[in-house]
Amino acid sequence: MRMKLKLSRQILAIIIACFFLMQAALAANVRIQNPPKELPLHLVKLQNELIDDVEKIEEVIYQRGALYRDKEVENYLNKIAEKIAPDVPLDKKRKFSIKIIRDPAVNAFALPNGSIYIHTGTLAKLENEAQLAFLMGHEMSHVVHRDSVYHVNSVHNKTIVYKLFDIALAPTSVFFGILGDLVQLGFGILHVATVTGYSREIEARADEDGILWASEKGYHPRKAAVIMEIFLKEKEKYQTGPEVYFLMNHPSTERRLKKVNAIIREKYGKSPEGEIKEEEFLTTMSKVKVYNASLNIKMDRLEHAMENIEWVMTKFPHSPKAHYVAGEIHRLKSENKNRLEYELNAKNWRELNKGRKKGELEKIWREKAIEEYKTAITCDPVYADSYKGLGLLYYDMEDEESAMANFNKYLEIEPDAVDKRYVTSFLKRIEADKKADEKHN
Fold first, then answer.
1. Mean pLDDT score of the chain, rounded to an integer?
2. Chain-centre distance for alpha carbon 115
């Protein structure tokens, strides 16, 4: 009897062990759904050359200050990357590292050494951690499968184009002079990896990897499709152009979205579940969204900037900086509404002006600007920039008394302001106008 019981326990143990081994095997199959090919020996040298070039170029990017540096944000992004990184060994020269480019264009790209660059413009568009996980997984797939190496080899040209930093990092290359440095250094870089995308099959595989790797770690797979819907809205609202690089020249967006949804239905059913993880993402990314709004303002992309900042004000209604930036956007629109004509597509521009009297929009925007500046001051009475914004707005409205009061308040709070001379010039003009009026009267 004891012998039978012992055998039964052994059989049960074997069954349990087999069960767990089978589960592990299934997990492994999910983890490496599309296993990378071993790199042929004749391409190892090419990969090493590309990685050497990339590292030198990354040094130029760093030296020029084109990176957005914030330890909290960087640590957060790299924590997610480490979490979803596939169980595929990378060679010594390749290591996943997430970096942020100070650029409002929507783009993300991977380089052969494992560096993944995400634009501030992309982070400003995303809504939760699940979307971010899919995006990272997609770019990691290009690194794991060495897509850039195979592509460079196929065109028999290591230095593909200098156009990378002229287009993929626009306006970064202009702001920081990176393009000129690279031309002087004699480096080309992987234009395909950052701008044009790869073939339909490769991009579809990267999408599938992104879904699988993110969902295996508990993220909601449906968000993979949502991210593309978000980027599509960008194209629908604004003028035609390379607005969303992540989708540009990739397979037909509609086909790509259809394929992603098919993968989700096939693997997770019609009602997939998973974590979205919104709260930490939103709290961490709010500063990125505000910063990206400031970049958009510099480029006269005022509607883009407003999208960034409206989100922050909804989630953090007591942020004086967010309300100040909103005030700036409305003030600049009121100064010259034609800025929007160059930003919006024809349909949205017509809709904006439909049924409007001359000067009506400008009046609305001035009122909104005043409201936002004053809200910022309510949130923080010594938030100096809001007084300067009000001063500029009132000066433009020819309310010189109000302009003077706010300019003086700004200088009272910031006596050593870097733009003190600029603000003082308005005060001198107001004083000169007063004297001229007194003399005339």
1. 81
2. 16
